[in-house]
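purine-nucleoside phosphorylase
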Amino acid sequence: MSTVHEVIVARHCGMRVFALSLITNKAVMNYDSEEKANHEEVLQTGKQRAEQLERSRSGG
């Protein structure tokens, strides 16, 4: 979520900006749920998404 603030500051400084945000975990919307957010899941999903971006960038 900090991307917005960083872009605002960069634009204020006259910089051109390209931003990309990836969703790396699902939100647990039900407070009564036994399911909890998991940091390891976020890291693993981020790694997978980075690999997917690399493949799409290289045309693979």
